[in-house]
Amino acid sequence: MSSYALKERVFHHLTKFFAFLVLFFLVAIFVVLLVKAYPAIEAFGFDFLTDEKWAPNLGIFGGFPAIYGSFISTLIAMLLAVPVAIGIAIFLSEVAPSRLKSPMGVSIELLAAIPSVVYGMWGLFYFAPLMRDLVGGNGLGLFTAGFILSLMILPFIAAITRDSLNTTPQILKESAYALGATKWDVIKDVMIPYAKAGIIGSVILALGRAFGETMAVTFVMGNVHNVPDSIFQAATSIPATLANEFNEADTELYYSSLFFLALILFIISFAIISLAKFHFLKRRKKVSDRKHKWHKLVKQWRRK
Amino acid sequence: MEKEIIDLEVKDFSFRYAGASADSLKKINLPIIKNKVTALIGPSGCGKTTLLRSLNRIHDLYPGNEYRGEVNFEGRNILSADEDLIHLRTRIGMIFQKPTAFPMSIYENIAYGLKLQGIKDKTVLSGRIEKALKGGALWGEVKERLNDEADALSGGQQQRLCISRAIAVEPEIILFDEPTSALDPISTEAIEKLIMELKDEVTIVIVTHNMQQAQRISDYTAFMYLGDLIEYGETDKIFNNPDEELTKQYISGQFG
Ligand SMILES: Nc1ncnc2c1ncn2[C@@H]1O[C@H](COP(=O)(O)OP(=O)(O)OP(=O)(O)O)[C@@H](O)[C@H]1O
Ligand SMILES: [Mg+2]
Hints:
By secondary structure, chain A is mainly alpha-helical. In chain A, 79% of the residues lie in helices and 1% in strands. Chain A has a single domain, classed as MetI-like (MetI-like fold).
């Protein structure tokens, strides 16, 4: 074998090895979670998902408050962040004067780079006291966490949405203007439909990030296993529970219940990312369908 | 010969791009005759596109460009600062070098300009869409599949879709910037035939690099060079017996 062919083969196997390594880790993590969670799965089964009581001293563990807290705080974050982020992206891509576009765009990207623990600290020391003065209580809870999460994902959605909007071909926009469209018509009828895949993708990825976020939420959630009556009361989330309670997990069932929660988080996050992937795949397939159609037309035409 | 009506009149018109140090168009004087085809020819970079894009003020989408002189249309100077550009662009349509179907159905593409004008009535829309597609010589090919995505059409069909879309709003003038440069010969022929039919209804200005095309379809030709309008006249005269030496050299292919 020539040395070139040998190199080629070594390279081939090496890259293949690394690719499989990633797959291996994924499966390994899943298996570890499953094994460690097994005692809790055996003890509580699917009731774990709906049981509200979390009483370590009594050996009772229900995952519902943490799961509920994760979903509601994420929902609040999305409701607050998505419209604002898309508004910012539209402003940056088509409305803002060009001398503002670049400095504001860079600021958004910098905001996206702030570590989440900083958002959490800011939330605890500035936003939570504000909430306390406004609505009472201790200022911690689902809404506070949702708000901090929304600040965290907003720049991410805004930056990707702006980039997607900017991929709209100039000539397509000009065609709409040339028919008498206003700026708003062009944004709504040409740019947003054109950028739709990118926008939805960024929203789903942000959803995944918000759902799994640990630090920012742990600071401001209040961390009590409670399904509150109002979004302004303290609660907890899956990641916050995991970050807080491993130190205290003194029984096997406690320890295992935390792993059960981690397994649930893993599965939900995996599902969210798969949704994003599926969304992009579907989109790509549609495009290739169109190409297919076009080829058919060419063939028909040739036959004539 | 029938009486010629000047539909649009370019008078001492100069244009400078934002940040440029020289004018890209220098004191252009050009009449655009109603219901005729006027071709703009000249070597690359002479300002044909720049002139065309001034006539519907699409340049205004980018800040800092400078117009001087007059472009008179329907009794007013459309270069004035208070010109209603939205209205102007419904009166003067534009077709681009590449087909620019919107990412929507064939029907929606044609309906778009009409909806912008507030036409919502389904039967009115359908009637206008059929008329426009017939006018754009596309009706026969698409009438069975108006709800298909427009980008499933061939390039030539898409360009005729764009023409249909432009005529749907019943403009006075349509500006074409090298509309066939991205198309095969058969599609090109279809578009040329279409342009000659359209001039009964609209006034046409077309930029082209193709001398034969200019001769085949235009009634008047303007030859431009380095931002100047060198010569304007009836197409036959420009191509057979031009006054200017520069024009003669260009049409005989000595430069460009
Ligand atoms: N956006 C712009 N900013 C600055 N200068 C420009 C811009 N667009 C064109 N120009 C300049 O203006 C002049 C005329 O360009 P224009 O595009 O009108 O030429 P054209 O005759 O259409 O050429 P072609 O046949 O290659 O399309 C050229 O010198 C070009 O470099
Ligand atoms: Mg040009």
